[in-house]
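Design a sequence for this backbone.
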């Protein structure tokens, strides 16, 4: 049974676009369906963690609002955080699900119990995951993966 869901941010929870205003402020858009899926997953007892190679205060703000406590940003070695979370929550790889879209996500996707990717993930990722969403990153792919996980868990 899956107990932890790990999500990449750019390209998974967003469409991968990085926008700056003329004043240098970063702008990100998040899908409300993905947000509802995360809240639902948390209510169903799944822990949710974000691991991102970039840092954004907007990510911190949005996902704290949703109740996500494990937000790891500016991470070069995502497997290091994976190991930390696995140990912190006393989990086996088979109890962890993850969704990623690009090459830095591959080590986690190959290690976890159930792996997923958005429709527009790079081919190398889509070839190795268990689940490929019909939706693109930032367009409901996370919600679709969460729905899949909760059905598998028997909570649907």
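Sequence:
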């Amino acid at each position: 049974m899956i107990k932890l869901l790990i999500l990449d941010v750019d390209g998974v929870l967003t469409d991968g676009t990085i926008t700056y205003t003329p004043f240098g402020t970063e702008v990100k858009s998040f899908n409300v369906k993905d947000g509802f899926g995360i809240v639902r997953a948390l209510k169903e007892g799944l822990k949710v963690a974000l691991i991102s190679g970039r840092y954004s205060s907007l990510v911190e703000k949005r996902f704290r609002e949703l109740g996500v406590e494990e937000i790891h940003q500016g991470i070069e070695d995502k497997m290091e955080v994976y190991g930390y979370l696995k140990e912190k929550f006393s989990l086996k790889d088979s109890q962890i699900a993850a969704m990623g879209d690009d090459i830095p996500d591959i080590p986690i996707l190959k290690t976890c119990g159930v792996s997923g990717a958005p429709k527009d993930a790079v081919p190398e990722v889509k070839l190795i995951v268990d689940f490929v969403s019909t939706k693109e990153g930032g367009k409901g792919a996370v919600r679709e993966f969460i729905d899949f996980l909760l059905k598998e868990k028997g909570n649907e």
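The chain has a mean pLDDT of 95.
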